[in-house]
Amino acid sequence: MDPKVSSGTNEQLMPMRCPECGTKIEVRHVRSSFPCPGCNKKLCVAAGYLIRLRLLTAILAFVAAYLIGLRGMPLVLVGALGSLVFATIATPIGLVVLPPMIERYF
Ligand SMILES: [Zn+2]
Q1: Whole-angstrom Cα distance, residue 48 to residue 56?
Q2: What spacing in Å lies between the alpha carbon of 51 and ligand 1's midpoint?
Q3: Centre of ligand 1 from the C-alpha of residue 10, in Å
Q4: Ligand 1: distance of its center to the CA of 16 in Å?
């Protein structure tokens, strides 16, 4: 790993870095929207990332509910509730395992 960060010409967005000043964003800073610890600009996690994470956790929850033998209405209820619980657990893990892109928050 090259510790030097090229400035200006690097077109590729770095995960978990401020798009404005390049400050590294720690997982503990990340909320649905949050100020950059470096330049104080309002930032957020790329929307596509959160949608994919939510979708993945919802699928996992429904598959888990199906596998424990639930069908019909209980499957829908437990699946919906489970996807909320899974998303709460998976979001901080996901931020570490698959660092998201950070975007300006408008
Ligand atoms: Zn910044």
Answers
A1: 12
A2: 24
A3: 16
A4: 11
